[in-house]
Amino acid sequence: MDKDRIKAQIDLEWDDDEVLPEVVNPDTEFLFNRMTEATFEVVGARQGEMILDIGCGRAGDGVELARRGATVVGLEASRVMLAHAREHVNGNGAHVTLVHGVGECLPVRHQSVDKVLCKGALDHFAEPETVIGQIARALKPEGQAIIALANFESLGFKLGRRIYSVKLALGFKDGTVRMPWEPPPDHTCKFDYFLLRRMVGAYLEVEEEVGVSFLFGFPWWGAFLARCPRKIYLALLAILDKVAHRFPSLSDVVILRCRPKNGECVD
Ligand SMILES: C[S@@+](CC[C@H](N)C(=O)[O-])C[C@H]1O[C@@H](n2cnc3c(N)ncnc32)[C@H](O)[C@@H]1O
What is the 167 CA–ligand 1 centroid distance (Å)? Predict the structure, then answer.
C-alpha cells in the first residue's frame, strides 16, 4: 500500500469544528448520543483487551473505552484532530495511545488486535474498502470489528427525498443548499446499509447488526420535536429507536459487529 498516495487524498488538517451543524435539533442530538451509547454496547469493552479506534477524531470514545479498562490506541489522519484528541486525553487523565496514520495502512502486526472500532469514519476514508481489508488483517482470529456508520438510504431520507421532489414539481423551492440525504462535501463515499454490508462482507463475517434512530432528516421532524417538551420528545425518539433496532436497513445509523472470516488473515 502506497501510504503517500493515500495521504495525498486526505485532508490532513480536517477539523470537526468546521463541520458541526449550527442548529442542533433534538433528533440530531439524540442520534449522536444514541450512536455512541449503542456503539459502546456492541463493543462491550473488557479489561485489558486492545482496541484500535480508526479515525478516532477527538478520542472521546477512546477515553470512555479506556475508562472501562481497555487498552486503547487511537489512529487519526488529521493533525488538527490529533491535537484535539491529545488535549482531551490529557484533560481526562486517560491512557489512550494516539497515533498519526491512515486506516488504509495500519501500523500493526497481522492478527494482533482484539477489537477494532471504526465509528462515523468509513465514509471519510480515501479507500474505505482497503481499510476494511486492513481491519481483517489486523484482527486476531477471534477478534471483532465494530463499524458504525450513517445510512444515507434511511426511511427518513427516502421519504424526505420523495416529499422534496413533489414540492419541486409543484414549484416550491426553499433555497436549502444541501439536503440532509446528500452526503456532506467531506465525505468520500455515500454509504447505505446494503453497500456497507456488501463491502464489509467481502472481508469479514457479520455477527450482529443494530439499527440506531429513526426518521432523522424527515421534513419538519426536527423542528416539530424542538417545540415539544423534552420529556415528550425523548420518549418519542426512544420508541422510534426501538423500531430502528429491528430494521437496520431503514435506520439512521447502522452498527455492525464482525469477525474475520473463518479466522483467516487477509494480506
Ligand atoms: C467524522 S470523524 C469521526 C471521529 C470519531 N470516530 C467519532 O465518532 O467521533 C472521521 C475521522 O476520520 C479521520 N480520517 C479521515 N480519513 C482517514 C484515514 N484515511 N485514516 C484515518 N483517519 C482518517 C478524520 O480526520 C476524522 O477525524
Answer: 36
Give the atom of ligand 1 at the shortest distance from the alpha carbon of 104: 19
pLDDT in tens, 147-162: 999 999 999 999 999 9
Overall number of domains in the chain: 1
Name residues contacting ligand 1 (CB within 6 A).
10, 14, 54-57, 60-61, 75-78, 81, 102-104, 119-121, 124-126
Q: How many angstroms separate the alpha carbon of residue 203 from the centre of ligand 1?
A: 21
The predicted model scores a pTM of: 0.95
What Å distances lie between residue 68 and 51, 64, 81, 115, 118, CA to CA?
A: 11, 6, 23, 14, 18
196-252 confidence digits (pLDDT tens): 999 999 999 999 999 999 999 898 999 999 999 999 999 999 999 999 999 999 999
Q: How far apart are CA 149 and CA 256, in angstroms?
A: 9
Domain containing 18 equals 3-263
> How far apart are the C-alpha atoms of 181 and 173, rounded to whole Å?
16
Q: Which domain CATH number covers 35? A: 3.40.50.150
Distance 136 CA to ligand 1 centre (A): 19
